[in-house]
Amino acid sequence: MSEKRYFKRVNFPAEVQVICNENILQGDLFDISLKGALIRIHEPGILQVGRQATLRIYLSSTAISITAEADVVHQRGDDFGFRFFKIDAESIGHLRRLLELNLGSSEAVNSELEFILKKG
Predict the structure, then answer these.
(1) At how many degrees (to 10) do helices 106-119 and 89-103 cross?
(2) Half-sphere exposure for 83 (CA within 13 Å, toward CB)
(3) How do residues 27-49 score in pLDDT, each as one tens digit?
(4) H/E run at residue 37
(5) In whole angstroms, what is the distance from residue 82 CA to residue 71 CA?
(6) Is 3.30.450.40 the CATH classification of the domain at 10-119?
(7) How far is CA 8 from the centre of its chain?
(8) Separation between Cα atoms, residue 24 and residue 99, nearest integer Å
(9) pTM beyond 0.90, yes or no
(10) Could you tell me the sign of the dihedral formed by the alpha carbons of 92, 28, 59, 5, in that order?
(11) How remote is the C-alpha of 96 from its chain's centroid?
(12) In degrees rounded to 5, what are phi and psi of residue 67?
């Protein structure tokens, strides 16, 4: 399968809650970018490609989190790819800082943000 990645991803292990149709699923974050995340769901059950969910990604215990609305865009076993379509200002600030620290470059993140703003 050929992949087309436009946004840099960083591996960042974290706990995740996926809320879908009033169900709360637990999972583990594999990687994250400005536009989405790859998450392993412990008990995927009702989750499937095409559904929408709220993601709550805990960056340090439960004190700091990124909350985003996302579409499930692909699945391989218990691993689900999510594309963000809505994220609040505080969460985008946390995400931006996480990416800057892990990529070692604020310029790369700024370039990706500019690309998103031009498209949107």
Answers:
(1) 140
(2) 12
(3) 999 999 989 999 999 987 889 99
(4) strand 36-41
(5) 5
(6) no
(7) 12
(8) 26
(9) no
(10) negative
(11) 12
(12) -115, 130
The rounded distance, in Å, linking the Cα atoms of 108 and 120 is: 19
Tens place of pLDDT per residue across the chain (120 aa): 444 556 778 899 999 999 998 899 999 999 999 899 999 999 878 899 999 999 999 998 668 899 999 999 999 999 999 999 999 999 998 998 888 888 887 787 777 777 766 665
Residue length of the chain: 120
Token pair for residue 1?
């399968």
Closest by CA position to 81, among listed 47, 114, 111, 56: 47
